Amino acid sequence: MKFRDRLSLRLHQVTDPSTSEDLTLKREIHLARNIQTTLLNGEKPKLRNGEVTGSSIPARLIGGDYYDFYPLSNGKIRIVIGDVMGKGIPAAMLMILTRGAFRSAAESTISPGETLTAMNNALYKDLRSLRSFVTVFCADWDPCTFLLTYANAGHHLPLFIREDTVKPLPKVSGVMLGGLPNQTYEEMTIQMKSNDYIYFYTDGIVESENIEGEQFTLERLIAVLQKHEGRSVHEIQQMTIEAIQQFTKGTQQKDDITMVILKAGENAADITGIHSPMNQE
Amino acid sequence: MHVSLLVDIQHQGTRVILKVKGIMDITTLDIFSEAIDQLPENLSRLTLDFGDMEFIDSTGIGAIIELIYMANEMGFSIDLQGIDEQTNQIFEIVGLYQILEALQKEEGR
Lengths: 281, 109
Description:
The complex is a heterodimer of chains A (281) and B (109).
Chain A: H1 3-6, H2 8-11, H3 19-40, E1 50-57, E2 65-71, E3 77-84, H4 88-108, H5 112-129, E4 134-141, E5 147-153, E6 159-162, E7 165-168, E8 187-191, E9 197-201, H6 203-206, H7 217-225, H8 233-248, E10 257-264
Helix pairs in contact in A: 4-5
Chain B: E1 5-12, E2 15-24, H1 29-36, E3 45-56, H2 58-74, E4 77-81, H3 85-94, H4 96-106
Parallel strand pairs in B: 2-3, 3-4
Antiparallel strand pairs in B: 1-2
């Protein structure tokens, strides 16, 4: 089989649709966009001792980025952010598949690493046959202890923000979903303190481009986040979006832009800081 | 016309060095695919040289992973060279090296 044919699922496009077909297609894409927007922008969970929010802006009408929250019966909240390979409608279909796998796995697994293993087990064959993959980062946050436990399937490490220091979370490795079968995912736990933030994001943010083709970059994102001044997660979300918009000045973007922001509240239980990511290089 | 990806193919017997120059994303996937389809059937080893690659997105990474799976099925090995620090980090994060190692180990290469 030729390499081009192997990628044909990815490359196939509708060509020369008749006017009526074109209109039908447009209508259906808008309906699909409504479904995706509704699923992504549902009610955000209200946290005891903290705040969380998320936002996703597709580069096209619909996109392949994904984030979700799942309240666990032990009082923790499971947070996930993911990026499906590719763009547009094919990526959006796989994003819905990923959402189903996460919801199902979150219900039946006890930790982020186990959730990723269950998701990979559920999705591997489908993703391989579709020649695709999904990067996913998954974390459990405990509002009583302020402990954040996380695992990673090929996604960018979120940023940890404490006062004016912004740096990636300590590294955990793992193959993206759809990369290899039967994967286990290592976990890491850090101790958060009051007013610490975690900024989860997809690469569409740092790869946003202006008209000259220059990228927004991680350095610019960090510079924006350093000016948080204790703001709410919603204000930080808005601050980031405005900074990207000012940089790109309306340039059509190639990739979806998605972020999830977690802020630890004021009323932490007794915490020690021994696992503080600020003490690690 | 501006071409955002150039692929240079050098044959050395049953070995091939494929040098990519420019951008590997959805807009250049066709160019990369055409180059791969020119590889000889008796290929024993493929070297992918990223020394002049400027940018790669998830679609480009997907194409490389597909190539690794194709190598596993067709019985040739792949090695990667000329990877800069930024690309190395991306490949490491997504687990591309682990996939390459696992599949080539499977084939005993």
